[in-house]
Amino acid sequence: EEAPLEEAFEQTIARNDRIEPRDWMPDDYRKTLIRQIAQHAHSEIIGMQPEGNWITRAPSLRRKAVLLAKVQDEAGHGLYLYSATETLGVSRDDLTRRLLSGTQKYSSIFNYPTLSYADVGTIGWLVDGAAICNQVPLCRTSFGPYGRAMIRVCKEESFHQRQGYELLMTMMRGTDEQRAMVQESVDRFWWPALMMFGPPDGDSPNTERSMTWGIKRHTNDELRQKFVDMTVPQAKALGVTLPDPELRWNDERQAHDFGSPDWEEFWQVVKGNGPCNAQRLAHRQRAYDEGAWVREAAMAYADRQVDENV
Ligand code: FAQ
Question: Are 54 and 66 in contact (CB under 8 A)?
């Protein structure tokens, strides 16, 4: 029974074509997708918190409006991604519970605090910059709903990256204190941003199979390199120093050499022991509990529509 189905799946992957929700797919392909897309969705939603922290303290009405729009976009990205995950046969409520119980992850980057307003700019520049590097190739991922969500997400992330860069550029043209604030922020976020791409290829259990299935199109180290190469000229234009003494252009490789992030710190953060893990999850749990009445009201309304239609 399954042989022709499996063959059709393999052929679709080999043609670099899309697998769609109603197509047959191996269980492990489905599981890997649920893991990655749900983790991505959770990252968007948890990722609202670090920047949300500065909405009430943005320095002007314009900056506040921009930041509000950006944080709302992240909520939208989370919803596209939860919808894409639901096409694999798992409910959003179930996914939220898995996040809250710690059985599903979200990106390590959102477990670091936002200590100064410059962090809003740095997150836009480096975190959204890293996200774009990682997500542009995911527009060609083999699962249709995920790839289509990524196209729209990437357009919005480009705007986010530019707003961060523009914010930092404005501060760099300001006072010495503002410049120092930007540098201090970049010093804190540089290494965590490099960790967003995941462990080095040699310690990445999922990469090989995800590449065979066309879920991932590049390895973690390939994308990290691309990000460094893209960011160095931007740092120069901005006038900030990236906090890595080993960072230099390698003429032979036509790429930058750079130092290694603290992978011990990375695994600690992934395991839940980062500076803000507990705070982020507690906040999400509170929002979930406080939203219970909305879910109940929506369900009651939906039930009544069904009753009235019989
Ligand atoms: N954080 O074998 P691999 C955004 C886990 S951007 C936490 O290499 P894989 C936009 C990994 O899950 C951020 N955990 O795994 C935004 C696995 O554990 P598991 C979201 C990590 O999947 C900006 C284990 O380590 N973007 O939100 C991390 O092949 C500003 C072994 O790793 C995405 O999720 C990490 N950094 O490669 C929002 C992109 N790295 O699951 C708001 C889509 C690895 O087996 C504000 N995801 N782990 O228990 C991907 O491209 C991949 O999943 C990787 C990891 C590259 C993240």
Answer: no
